[in-house]
Design goal:
five-stranded parallel sheet, 10 helices, about 60% helix
Length: about 200
């Protein structure tokens, strides 16, 4: 099983990705965790990323792409993967599709957890207070949601047009969200090989 998780901050993407990885016996690849691991290990990619992080700049797409590809390609040769946190914009998605087509990698589905901005704000404020995070101000959290809506949400239509999108009600209890994902995946992956694949569109 080869899956991609798409969701705004606070939607529970990491939790559901971990559950799916356990359920299907596949690797959970979280781009944020991967970035931190590379930096801490002082790998060449991690050192390249750290230079940008130390300046407060975004890590370039090509650096993130190389990190993700280094984990996705081996996982693809095994039982599969669930990719969490990448791509973040349509430019990254286009490049990822090109590389995936070249490597013979194709997704089974893209899972989108839909949660209203009001509920996301409530969850993020609650989590920030519990964890003592510095981003517990409403304005900062709203900015994060605005960035998602402007930069990442267009991927919903992007993957929908490829016939890969599975939309889930992310406002349900955690177990109910997992159950809905598994039910819809069972339907999605039984539709046969004729549905569009990312690699097909890139050829």
């Amino acid at each position: 099983m080869r899956l991609l998780m798409l969701a705004p901050p606070g939607a529970g993407k990491g939790t559901q990705a971990a559950r799916l990885a356990d359920h299907f016996g596949i690797e959970h690849i979280a781009s944020g965790d991967l970035l931190r691991e590379e930096v801490e290990a002082r790998t060449p990619l991690g050192q390249a990323a750290r230079e940008y992080l130390d300046r407060g700049d975004l890590v370039p797409d090509e650096v993130v792409m190389a990190m993700v590809a280094g984990r996705v390609l081996p996982a693809n040769e095994k039982d599969g993967f669930v990719l969490d946190g990448f791509p973040r914009n349509t430019r990254q998605a286009d490049e990822a599709r090109r590389l995936a087509a070249d490597a013979g990698v194709s997704l089974d589905a893209v899972i989108y957890l839909h949660v209203s901005d009001e509920e996301l704000l409530r969850r993020l404020l609650s989590r920030a207070k519990q964890e003592g995070r510095s981003d517990d101000q409403v304005a900062v959290i709203r900015h994060r949601l605005d960035v998602f809506n402007q930069v990442t949400r267009p991927l919903v239509d992007y993957f929908d047009q490829l016939g890969l999108l599975v939309t889930i009600n992310g406002e349900q209890p955690i177990d109910a969200v997992t159950e809905e994902i598994l039910q819809k995946l069972a339907v999605k992956t039984s539709q046969g090989p004729d549905r569009p694949r990312p690699g097909d569109a890139a050829r």
